[in-house]
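Re: [ENG-882] Designed sequences occasionally contain unexpected residues at chain ends

Forwarding the minimal case from QA. Structure tokens:
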């Protein structure tokens, strides 16, 4: 019983002491930090707040874009939150793109009452395919003579003036439109995503495309060359009704996921809003050869009588090195930065001419752009070429046979006969890369090369693999023989 009386008393004493100590510790706070002791402006002037303020996005980043383009097709529900939207389209189906004037009052008054020009393109999303876009499109043209990749459905379009489709640019259409009037353009995409994938065992996975729209205003000379706005979205194109089935499959797959998993994915939106991007660079390749499929008398993919093998083409016109010149104006320097994938730094170098950029040292560029992009930009400015990991030389056997036959008919000795070889440079040392380089040399699509063999002992044909290529000696010479594939319209290539 004595303990029952003492415990409450002890608790009260301890609690009373703690309260007194706490009150004493707070007694001087009001006197030390009075109203005149500090102000909020002094706190905001501290270095930590200045650093955070400098990291805030400038007001220009939050500006309202002058135009908005809306593709009337639903986005996929199977896209993660922070990834770009993906939209499925049916081959040949007409899809509406609404061209919306999004300008604020008084913005871009020079285009009031005037037309602007928009160019719509279907381009590759994968960077690897962007580098070989010309060869990919030429291969598609050869397989689909007379067809286009992108078309306008003019009868369904509204507000479109002077629509044009260049016969040599299968993936591009252009038109004029008035931003002050309702404008909707209907497009049709005729290629499918699986036409540009290498055939593999177990099916094919289609590559994504981009639909990009670039809009220009008229300059003083009456030409539509002054860039106003660009936007794009990611799409995949399926055979008719295939996009609907794919959308349904993705929706059912998401419904089976747990609620916690669903939160990691974007909802499916009824329309696709194209997001702002860099303008598409001008075409940088030179093509003086006739287009396959349009001129049967001078086809760029001739066939040898007998085995129907493709003839090795002369070396294509070399692409001019895109080196920045000291005489380049700030506008030309900006275009060079866009073409060479330095768009994020265009604002930093907005007033730099070609000479200004070329005067930057390696340390300067790394300090401005960071180590990774700085080294890449410095190498691009100096025009440095990376040495390939493997170089091989190839010559077509049919050319050797023809030249030897001509020498024999002319009575010349075989000792004076020489053959022209073509250099192939490999970076990845993979069979897929060799297939692409040989297809480029033959001016055909890589999908038309079924297999590549190397002639071994006693004339056996050994399938070329990544491991075999990695064991090639540098600057080896091969004679190419081609055979028609038995199962499709492709070819087998034999390295002798």
């Amino acid at each position: 019983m004595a303990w029952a009386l003492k415990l409450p008393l002890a608790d009260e004493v301890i609690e009373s002491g703690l309260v007194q100590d706490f009150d004493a510790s707070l007694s001087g706070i009001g006197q030390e930090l009075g109203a005149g002791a500090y102000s909020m402006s002094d706190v905001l002037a501290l270095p930590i707040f200045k650093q955070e303020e400098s990291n805030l996005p400038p007001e220009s980043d939050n500006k309202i874009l002058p135009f908005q383009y809306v593709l009337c097709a639903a986005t996929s529900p199977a896209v993660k939150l922070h990834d770009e939207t993906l939209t499925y389209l049916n081959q040949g189906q007409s899809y509406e793109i609404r061209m919306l004037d999004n300008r604020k009052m008084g913005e871009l008054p020079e285009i009031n009452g005037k037309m602007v020009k928009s160019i719509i393109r279907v381009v590759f999303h994968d960077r690897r395919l962007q580098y070989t876009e010309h060869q990919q499109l030429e291969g598609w043209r050869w397989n689909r003579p007379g067809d286009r990749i992108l078309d306008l459905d003019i009868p369904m379009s509204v507000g479109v003036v002077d629509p044009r489709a260049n016969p040599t640019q299968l993936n591009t259409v252009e038109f004029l439109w008035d931003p002050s009037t309702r404008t909707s353009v209907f497009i049709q995409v005729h290629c499918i995503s699986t036409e540009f994938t290498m055939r593999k065992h177990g099916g094919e996975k289609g590559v994504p495309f981009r639909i990009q729209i670039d809009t220009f205003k008229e300059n003083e000379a009456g030409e539509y060359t002054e860039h106003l706005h660009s936007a794009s979205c990611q799409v995949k194109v399926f055979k008719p009704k295939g996009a609907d089935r794919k959308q349904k499959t993705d929706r059912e797959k998401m419904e089976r996921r747990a609620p916690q998993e669903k939160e990691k994915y974007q909802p499916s939106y009824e329309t696709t809003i194209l997001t702002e991007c860099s303008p598409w660079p001008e075409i940088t390749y030179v093509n003086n050869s006739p287009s396959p499929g349009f001129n049967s008398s001078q086809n760029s993919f001739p066939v040898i009588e007998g085995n129907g093998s493709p003839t090795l083409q002369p070396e294509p016109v070399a692409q001019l090195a895109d080196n920045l010149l000291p005489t380049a104006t700030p506008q030309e320097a900006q275009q060079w930065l866009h073409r060479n994938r330095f768009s994020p730094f265009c604002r930093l170098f907005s007033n730099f001419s070609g000479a200004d950029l070329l005067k930057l040292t390696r340390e300067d560029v790394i300090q401005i752009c960071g180590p990774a992009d700085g080294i890449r930009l410095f190498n691009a400015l100096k025009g440095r070429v990376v040495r390939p990991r493997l170089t091989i030389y190839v010559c077509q056997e049919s050319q050797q046979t023809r030249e030897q036959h001509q020498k024999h008919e002319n009575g010349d000795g075989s000792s004076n006969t020489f053959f022209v070889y073509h250099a192939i440079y490999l970076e990845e040392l993979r069979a897929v890369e060799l297939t692409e380089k040989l297809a480029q040399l033959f001016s055909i699509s890589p999908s038309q090369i079924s297999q590549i063999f190397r002639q071994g002992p006693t004339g056996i044909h050994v399938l070329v693999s990544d491991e075999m290529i990695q064991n090639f000696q540098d600057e080896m010479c091969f004679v190419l023989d081609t055979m028609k594939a038995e199962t499709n319209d492709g070819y087998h290539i034999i390295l002798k």
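QA comment: On inspection the terminal residues look reasonable. Residues 1-10, 25-61, 283-308, 314-320 have pLDDT under 50 and may be disordered. Proposing we downgrade this to a documentation issue.
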